[in-house]
Amino acid sequence: MEGTIAGEGTRTTRKEAMAETRRKLMAAGREAFGTIGYAEASMDDLTAAAGLTRGALYHHFGDKKGLLRAVVEEIDREMSERLGAISAAAGSRWQGLVDEQVAYIRMALEPEIQRIMFRDAPAVFGDLSQWPSASACVAALKAHLDALLAEGAIVEIDTEAAARLISGAGGYAATWIATSEDPAETSARAVASFRTLLDGLRARGM
Amino acid sequence: MEGTIAGEGTRTTRKEAMAETRRKLMAAGREAFGTIGYAEASMDDLTAAAGLTRGALYHHFGDKKGLLRAVVEEIDREMSERLGAISAAAGSRWQGLVDEQVAYIRMALEPEIQRIMFRDAPAVFGDLSQWPSASACVAALKAHLDALLAEGAIVEIDTEAAARLISGAGGYAATWIATSEDPAETSARAVASFRTLLDGLRARGM
DNA sequence: CGATTTGACATACGCGCCGTATGCCACTAT
DNA sequence: ATAGTGGCATACGGCGCGTATGTCAAATCG
């Protein structure tokens, strides 16, 4: 029924092979884009590292940008999941917001995320948060702010705009930290100031 | 004495000619980088548009990145001047800070600044605020915050870190606005939220 | 179960663009 | 006026992207 001799388990049906090469290309893309960067990455080298040729790449992703797009979407999903788990584990809603944003900054310190999501992708695609898969991080942050506003826990503010401003500040903080000489110390400073800045949004009546 | 026939005024001494070609190349660079972007800009086309060839470019700037570097430094100086004038014209120190930051966001709406300073330059050079000429905008903002902190007008905070966070939020707001469908309305929302966010830094005792 | 079709991927090609090496000629110095 | 300097143009090599074409294994159908 499957066109194979028996239930050999690791037999190479067409779909499996395709998924495998796709995974190889994505992995090679994350590796190359995350280290030497998008502009410097050669598609010949990248595909060769995956044990393939450019033919496979253009078949699956159309062009060089297509591979970057796929990689970005994958990383975006992973980030959302991790952030969601963190805010869900927090004690209060406010604490969840703070934890999530601090985690966001810390995630942006990971070289792969730093380089691909905060440096190359915006240059190639313009603004990320305007996507179909719209950088779910901003969306989650807005939802958080909406809930807090409804509770009266924060001052009156346009939650979408605020979410974008906060996210922008966090992203910039990450690049500042990543390019500094002492990332650990810089990170501590950035996070502390970030907490102060966020605290300014809490409702004054306490 | 000048190697020319007479005091013709517009006679071509060596230095003048060099300065002129440099200006032409910079102008062509700002035009090309500011519209089609750094990656898509062909140095053949760019130099031809300036009435020159790639020979002149590589003589003056070394390579493609060299021209971008020079363009970025020039724009950075212009931005600092404009922002300094704005904050100097404000009534109070706090008002100067707010005006300056709002102006920063609005400046980032200019296509040339948006594309070159906020999109391409960070991708090519990494973080801008770590430069020799260190994006004077951040430095000016930090100085502002230092003064306000000394006056007791804002809450206790690491002023450099805060300056970078604020600048990051502003920069991101600008790209959000620039890529939105209705920039005017989005701009109003961003600026309003930005004011609220800044307001959270003011000393609670009023 | 064998013939035919499909399509995933490799190979081959052309073009554009960058960076360098070389050449030319106007301006400078003596 | 003559020798020399250097700003800029021209010529060359190489690389990387995107496309067109080929190939062979897996899927489909009688």
From TrEMBL, chains A, B:
<dbReference type="InterPro" id="IPR049484">
    <property type="entry name" value="Rv0078-like_C"/>
</dbReference>
<dbReference type="InterPro" id="IPR050109">
    <property type="entry name" value="HTH-type_TetR-like_transc_reg"/>
</dbReference>
<feature type="domain" description="HTH tetR-type">
    <location>
        <begin position="19"/>
        <end position="79"/>
    </location>
</feature>
<dbReference type="InterPro" id="IPR023772">
    <property type="entry name" value="DNA-bd_HTH_TetR-type_CS"/>
</dbReference>
<feature type="DNA-binding region" description="H-T-H motif">
    <location>
        <begin position="42"/>
        <end position="61"/>
    </location>
</feature>
<dbReference type="Pfam" id="PF21351">
    <property type="entry name" value="TetR_C_41"/>
</dbReference>
<protein>
    <submittedName>
        <fullName>AcrR family transcriptional regulator</fullName>
    </submittedName>
</protein>
<dbReference type="InterPro" id="IPR009057">
    <property type="entry name" value="Homeodomain-like_sf"/>
</dbReference>
<dbReference type="Pfam" id="PF00440">
    <property type="entry name" value="TetR_N"/>
</dbReference>
<dbReference type="GO" id="GO:0003700">
    <property type="term" value="F:DNA-binding transcription factor activity"/>
</dbReference>
<keyword id="KW-0238">DNA-binding</keyword>
<dbReference type="InterPro" id="IPR001647">
    <property type="entry name" value="HTH_TetR"/>
</dbReference>
<dbReference type="GO" id="GO:0000976">
    <property type="term" value="F:transcription cis-regulatory region binding"/>
</dbReference>
